[in-house]
């Protein structure tokens, strides 16, 4: 863990190949060729794994978003159809009620208006006479 964290913030560093029993020209940690190759390839493997995981997560999020959007569009279209159907039914109901009202309305409106006015005037005269006497 210490080696990984210290190399993450370190500079490029120095590298040299040494033969057996040869002294190193600088202080450091010496790896054999297999260990060096392992370190180099592990870095590449980690980068590849990270790239694959990021790509997988992005594809997964994109697929979930597309599904959610498709479901929202389907719901929106269904609500639009429901609204159109309800509006159409309400328009039919209004038309039917208007027709029923027209059938119930008297055709001799002026005669009924005159009779109502005369009845109201007669009632007013009778009430007035009751209070005046």
Secondary structure elements and pairings:
Blueprint: H1 2-9, H2 33-104, H3 109-132
Commentary on this structure:
With 133 residues, this protein is mostly helical. The protein is 78% helix and 0% strand. The chain has helices at 2-9, 33-104, 109-132. Mean pLDDT is 84; it is low at 1-10.
Note the main sheet: none
Spell the H/E element sequence.
HHH
Q: State Rg.
A: 47 Å
Number of helices: 3
Shape assignment = rod-shaped
pLDDT average, as an integer? 84
In total, the number of strands is: 0
Indicate the multimeric state: single chain
- Uncertain segments are 1-10
Strand content: under 5%
Cα end-to-end separation: 117 Å
Amount of helix: over 70%
Structural class: mainly alpha
Question: How do you describe this structure in short?
Answer:
By secondary structure, the chain is mostly helical.
What are the key terms here?
133 residues, mainly alpha, disordered N terminus
